[in-house]
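Hi R.,

Here's the chain you asked about this morning:
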Amino acid sequence: MGVELLIVGGSSEPWVEVVAALGKEKMTVGIVEPGQAIDSSSVRILVGAPPDLASRISHCPKLQWVQSTWAGVDALSGFVPSDVQVTPLKGVFGQVMSEFVLGWLLALERNIIKRANAKHWISDCETSVSGKRLGIMGAGAIGSAVAKQASHFGIVVTGLNSGGQTAAGFSTCYPSKDRLDFAQGLDYLVSLLPSTSATDGIVDAALLARMNSGGIFINAGRGNAVCDADLINALESGALRYAVLDVFTEEPLAATDALWNVPGLFITSHTAAPTPSAAIPEIFARNLKSFLAGEPLADAMHLERGY
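And the predicted structure, written out as tokens:
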């Protein structure tokens, strides 16, 4: 019998053997390094990072399910047939993303980085984040986790999602079509949006102009959401005080890219929310149970929508 469950992952990845052990109880399992060839004619399940899986999908005529080891699966767009279920890692990034977003907001609003590097005594005190207005673009599970944590600091949080539906942690949510109203009067703006055609360039000059002068912008979603030229202009004009970019359209960001030299811009090299390896087998096991029972996978997503 050919391989039914194919795991694509480096041998040093701690989750690989655990996932393989789960699958071996039910089917034939194969493990390959990214780029390694294998007969995939019997593969029903693929597990791995989206960039390592995309080119394999067309060689898996019996494929029924793709389990991503990342939250983002935009690398699979255009490769997965409509009858194949795709499950990203869900429910495991809220805590680390909250740490990233709140850590940066506190550090920048309280001027901690500049003060710590000044090498002279600075006695004046900075303002508090309490009472500030934060807008989060992407009011899903991760956005809700960030919103809940931000509220503990007295920050008023509004959200933006496709239809304006209510979401936990937000005082109110706006539909995407009302993005300019959503941005009006914000002190902080955070994008956690997936990469889709609907989010291309959504953070542009018109949106940034609606924020309060001297605001802070953080992008920890996907790089396609930001119009880089408009962001640079906002920082250089002082309309924005600071920006933190963790993600980019092309990664790694080229050493010659203009973004490296923009005053007030911090680049964090796609490290905002590292994948917790221990969560991969847990999520796979839950989805595998449903798959073998012939039930819909609870974590399955719509690739075109990006969530």
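Residues 94-267 form a domain with the Rossmann fold fold (CATH 3.40.50.720).

Let me know if you need anything else.
M.
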